[in-house]
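Why does residue order matter? Because the sequence determines the fold. Keep that principle in mind as you read this record.
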Amino acid sequence: MSSTLKYVLLIALVLLLAAIPLAMQRNTGGIDGLITDKHGPIVKASVEARNTMSGAVFRVHSDAAGHYKLVSLPQGRYSLWVKAPEHDSEWIRELIVDQGRMTHRDIRLGISGTLPPPSGAAD
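Structure:
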């Protein structure tokens, strides 16, 4: 085999190997935002994103500053369910995740009220 042919094959092999990571990239994006109530950020709120077509579920919790971030989500339509202890939960019917983009959605949760004692209760 001639040396020119060897170099051409070597260059072709290197280019092929370099293209593998690009071929493995998926069409992904993400969702991020801030979860608060009337007093400020909510720590450790549970965030669940469900792809409405595939049913795949992705979960995270908000950090100490109330921020959440779901990354590497396949592009598509998602519903979002946010819960935190002693707070009303929030359901967001539809968010769109586009390739290479973060969809930003801040969420404000209400504080769950406690039921008053029944009338006629003993004091």
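The longest strand covers residues 28-37.
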